[in-house]
Each structure stands twice: as C-alpha cells, then as structure tokens.
What we know:
With 205 residues, the protein is α+β, with helices and mostly antiparallel strands. The protein has 2 domains: 8-92, no CATH class; 98-197, PAS domain (Beta-Lactamase, 2-Layer Sandwich). It is 47% helix and 16% strand. It has helices at 8-22, 31-46, 52-95, 115-121, 139-152; strands at residues 100-104, 110-113, 157-164, 172-180, 187-193. Strands 2-1-5-4-3 form a 5-stranded antiparallel sheet. Strand 4 (172-180) and strand 5 form a beta hairpin. It starts with 7 loop residues before the first helix and ends in a 12-residue tail after the last strand. Residues 22-29 and 198-205 have low confidence and may be disordered.
Amino acid sequence: MSDHTLEPARLADLRSRAASRLAGAAATKGSPARMTDALSALYTLASSPKTAADALALLHELQVHQVELDLQAEELRESRAELESALRHQIELYDLQPVGCFTVDLCLGVQELNRAAAGMLGIGREEVHGVSLDNYLAPDSRRLLKERVSSVVEGGQDACVLDFQPANGPARGVRADIRARPGTRHCFVVLTNVGDEQNSQPKSW
C-alpha cells in the first residue's frame, strides 16, 4: 500500500476526527475561516510524530477530492456552454420559421411570437404586450380557436381553419395547428396560409 493511501476504515476515522475539530464555532464561519480551521487541524495532526503519517495521507486524500471537484466544475461549465449554444440555435430556428408561431393564453392573448407571426399581424415584436389574436379573426373563428385552445391546453394537439383578418392586408384563410405548452396554461399556435401547407410542416413538433 502507498504511503499516501489509507484503508477506508482508517480514512473514515481520520475524516471524523477532522470534522470533530472543525465542529462548533467553525460551523458558523465562512469558507475562508473553515479552510483556516481545516489547515489548523491538519497542522495539529502533522505536529505529532504519532499522527504525522496520518496527516500526510489525509492531506493527499483531500487534494485528490479537490481535483475531483475541479474536474466536476469544469464539466458543468462545458455542459452549460453546450446548453446555451443549443438554446441559441433553437431560438434562431424558431425565429426563422417561415410560418407564424405564437404562444397564447386561454383568452388568445399573445405571449410570444416569431418574426413571421409579427409580420402577419403587422406589428413590431416589441408591441406584442396586450395583443390578442381575437383582433385578427372573424367572430366565428375567434370562438372556434378559443374552443380548440381550451380543449388542448391540458395536453394534446388539434388543428382548424380560420378566417384571418390582418390589419395590413386582405382577409384570408389560415390553418391553425395548436398544441399545449407543457407545464403552463398556454398553447403553441402555428398559422399557415391555406394553400401553403405543402411548403411547410407546422405539425411536426
């Protein structure tokens, strides 16, 4: 066995002894103070010929543990960077979709939308607060979309054809693909001009 290797039972005992030395007042101190107490405990062990070897072995174990923590921290940083990159990519894909993508509440209030959706409504994306799809649909289509949103908000998906009446153009038929947004009382609504369905795949969520 290496001079810097301890049997599990002996290592557990040493850690217990060190923890006992750090208990009490040290438990209420910040990390720098606890580190000072830890070093003091190791110094006390090292100062005695009977426990000097134990102190060296325990120090080695603590150093190995610190390296493990550093590696874990590095892995977490790398994972976070990968997730942030993936999120940016998904946001870009969402924003560049050629169909209007909306997130709406049960009253059809628009919570989020992509560029194509803003273009369909004829508004800037910064103007979305307080906007409702109600204002862009014929009366029968308003009722129909509210019914479909209410029916899928707990889960599932549906589709229907609506009479869309934008402020900056003629009325036209649009296909609405509706899907519940998990964990919320909101739904995703994708609007595609009738006749354009073959050029887009709004249902392939």
